[in-house]
Amino acid sequence: MARNFVACRKKVFDRGRPPVAFLNELVDWGVSAPAEIFARNNRTDIYSVVSDELGPWANDLERRAAMLEVLRVLAGFESSWKWKEGVDTTNPNSNTACTEEAGILQCSGDSMNFDGSLKQLLRTVSGRTDCISFQRTTKSNHKFALEYCARLLRFTVAHHGPVRDHHIHPELRRDAMAELLGFLQGEMDVAGREGTLAFTADIGTRARASGSRASGRIKAKSEAKTKAKTKAKSKRKTKAGGTAKRKTRRTSRKARR
Fold it and tell me: In this model, does residue 199 exceed pLDDT 50?
């Protein structure tokens, strides 16, 4: 689907403008992402720390748009929107497979320790849970990179320096969030309608199949009844014929006497 990005293409700090290709992938993910990622909770998370810039939110769809805006800006700060970005060479602590940052949002493997669901996400996508697999997956699987970071931001705001130190906050834009919300509303509505149509078509198919089976059963019953009647009628004729023959024989015997 062609999208016309205006506010989302505005410059982010000194990182430049988000590429259209990245923005399209961001919205694509936002349309299909699980609702649980954006639901309310009782933690101090990303929504808690950007509420002044992007809140308040009337519903989870607006919260979904706010998350996309955070990821739009954060990806600029962390990697200038480079999917395959490697380790942060300025961080002296990035010296093991599990502490090295990787990918567009610069998450590291040790961040899976914040919650078991993060490791489970990697296991579901890659079949493994080691830090090397995390690095490779987050660089190559764009949907995983976005979803992992979004989920991580619901558990902690300390993992990313630009979030923790409030560097992203002046760059967050309400007009960009509104633009993202517009895409989400239109496309999720279409997706919902298509899903309903598919479900309705499936119901129709199942109803026709059920009707065919029912029709078949009725036809079979009717044929069985017809056969039973024919058989009974045949038996009656056979019995009647036998009775008539016996009568004829008795009559003949009487006549001979």
Answer: no
Tokens of 19: 């590429």
The better pLDDT of the pair 111, 213 is held by 111
What gap in Å lies between CA 187 and CA 42, rounded to an integer? 30
Q: Whole-angstrom Cα distance, residue 86 to residue 155?
A: 24
Q: What is the pTM of this model?
A: 0.76
Q: Which tokens hold the place of 159? A: 């993992």
A 10 A CB-CB count for 133 gives: 17
Query: Residue 195 carries which side chain, given as an amino acid letter?
Result: G
Q: How far is CA 226 from CA 156, 213, 218, in A?
A: 75, 20, 12
Handedness of CA 222, 225, 230, 233 (dihedral sign): negative
Res 255: pLDDT: 44
Are 108 and 102 spatial neighbours (Cβ–Cβ below 8 Å)? Answer: yes
CA-to-CA distance for 79 and 103, rounded, in angstroms? 8
pLDDT tens readout for residues 15-48: 999 999 999 999 999 999 999 999 999 999 999 9
Strand partners, 102: 107
Exposure string (b/e) for 22-45, b if CB count within 10 Å is 16 or more?
Answer: bbebbbbbbbebeeebbeeeeeeb
Q: How far apart are CA 200 and CA 97, in angstroms?
A: 49
Are 78 and 160 in contact by the 8 Å Cβ rule? The answer is: yes
Contact 118, 98 (CB under 8 A): no
